[in-house]
Amino acid sequence: MLLRSGCRRLARSPARPGHRRAGSEAGEGSAPRYEVVVIGGGHAGTEAAAAAARGGARTLLLTHKIGTIGEMSCNPSFGGIGKGHLMREVDALDGLCGRLCDRAGIHYKVLNRAKGPAVWGLRAQIDRQRYRESMQREILNTPLLTVREASVEDLLLTEPEPERPGKCQVTGVILGDGSMVHAGSVVLTTGTFLRGMILIGLETHPAGRLGDQPAVGLAQTLEKLGFAVGRLKTGTPPRLAKDTIDFSRLEERAADNPPVPFSFLSEAVWIKPEDQLSCYLTRTSLRAQQIIRENLHLNDHIRETTRGPRYCPSLESKVLRFPNRHHQVWLEPEGLESNVIYPQGMSMTLPPELQEQVIRSIPGLEKAKMLQPGYGVQYDFLDPRQLTAALESRLVQRLFFAGQVNGTTGYEEAAAQGVMAGINACLRVHGKPPFIVSRTEGYVGVLIDDLTTLGTSEPYRMFTSRVEFRMSLRPDNADARLTHRGFEEAGCVSQQRYDRAVKMRAALEDGIATLKSIQLSISKWSQLLPEVSISSSRRSPASAFDILQYPEATVEVLARAVPEPLGKLAQWRELAERLKIEAAYEWCVVNQQQEMEEVRRDEALQLPEDLDYFAIDASLSAEVREKLDSNRPQTIGAVSRIPGITPAAVVNLLRFVKSSHQKTGKLKALPHADRYLPGKKNSEKARSQRQI
């Protein structure tokens, strides 16, 4: 039968004739069975499906159209400030997007170059067609992964597992044609398709993306199941014809030479440095502002109360919030062979004829032809506080969520969630503990902790400023932090990647030890390295590792002065670069590791899942109890990050939980991963050698 008695009342419409016939004629036993079913072919869906399959789960990816797998709905670019860190961490867990960007990029740039490597933002403009083809080729050739075109209308539910939170558990999905697919876990990555609506001017069209139908039935099911549903909006700019733009009047921004790859497996990107395309900068005019202000009555999207992205707002929003300014517009190519230009910073939902007027009021775009008007998208999202740190729903067991359905924005945030949801969906069906990345271990841990603890009322975007331990969680060491755990605990990392990470970690440890073993006086170093401005007040002797902290010093420079044994280190370029970064951040990392230990002690104490906050005998106010009950934090550390929870309340809750539950074994410790942090072995020695 379709739904058993315990969950029948929760389903949206279990007695629909088409679905009932499909269940009774085919029978549950004859319906196809998979260990993991992933709904949605966007970046969260593809990463989730690939991760589950890499973990050894027989996986089905359901998408409305196979040809849209890998489609970049908005700007064909990856990375940026904070987002580039997520890309590196997805790659460290053997995700797809980093490797594919190295095969499809046409303009590579490291943002924040003037600042330290800890906050560098790797970014690349991507050839839209090349990326889509690479993603489809990768997905369609992944072992244990089947792809099927279908719309999902409903969920198959049954009684919940005992000893776990949730009113029922998912056992599969019902497709649009009435057929069923059974699953051990289901991952929902619907993007902007849940009751999606496109807006252009005063016109509205049901769609999750231009030309694609929304998911209405599934949205109704989730609402009936009791999920807290919100509404968000985003937008996309018009597309312009490249050959109608006067680039001679604009500021050119050339790509980096050499380009920096995203993936730890890539020695170099696919394109020659000199073949990369440039981006160009222009700015809006006061005439554009006037057109927008005079026609706000023709724009429903901007008048809605639905929250839009604060950090990538529409041009109409910028004109209202920051009047009388010339706003930046970046003209970015969509491919080597493409004639399409993406004007980043010009997201609009005015009627098409007014969009054309705005475009032609901008320097360099006076004769530009609009190929496609910009449009807004409004869609349902689910409050992510209803999820565990493994991205599993608290209401419906074995149901995982990833991507924009959790209130995030951007390919990178979606991909990071997708990898984690796919890993945990696979571990769930195999009866293994969840794979959790804490705030002290990665940007993906910060992302998921922010969402599941604090929730969001606007599209969430990752920034370096959200991360407490930026000095330790750098783009260069994502493999050292996560690849070993991904291989040993999650089973999602290939042997090739694991072997490479082991080799690099060993080389780093040996390299640091070698550099520290070379001790010379400051006067001797100054004599050997005249190009390095070594402080005469520095304590003597100093190691080569100490000298490497100076900006002018590199492993190559040191190797010329001390060819034996440093010559070998200089020959491996990536190793030399990472040794330089390790030296630069050694003292910061030592201090941060002490702070991280304090956070880990809080994070490691998991709260019982069945804790009744209204009944416990602890000194907590009614307001605090309500916040704890609605947020359902999983750890003491998560409690401290809930707005409105006082430090005193955290201490009182901690005391109660320890005294009441520790003896019963309900307090569990999360696994630590600090043993994988670079330089950990040397931290005690470094602490003793620290010089102020």
Explain the overall architecture:
- The chain has 692 residues and is α+β, with helices and mostly antiparallel strands.
- The protein folds into 4 domains: 5-231 and 380-489, FAD/NAD(P)-binding domain, CATH 3.50.50; 239-378, Elongation Factor Tu (Ef-tu), domain 3 (Beta Barrel), CATH 2.40.30; 494-596 and 676-689, tRNA uridine 5-carboxymethylaminomethyl modification enzyme MnmG/GidA (Arc Repressor Mutant, subunit A, Orthogonal Bundle), CATH 1.10.10; 605-668, GidA associated domain, C-terminal subdomain (DNA polymerase, domain 1, Orthogonal Bundle), CATH 1.10.150.
- The protein contains 24 helices and 23 strands.
- The strands form 5 sheets. Strands 1, 2, 6, 7, 8, 9, 20 and 21 form an 8-stranded mixed sheet that branches. Strands 14-15-16-17-13-18 form a 6-stranded antiparallel sheet, with no helix packed on it. A 4-stranded antiparallel sheet has the order 11-10-19-12.
- Strand 16 and strand 17 form a beta hairpin.
- It is globular and about 75 Å long.
- The model is unreliable at 1-6, 8-27 and 669-692 (pLDDT under 50).
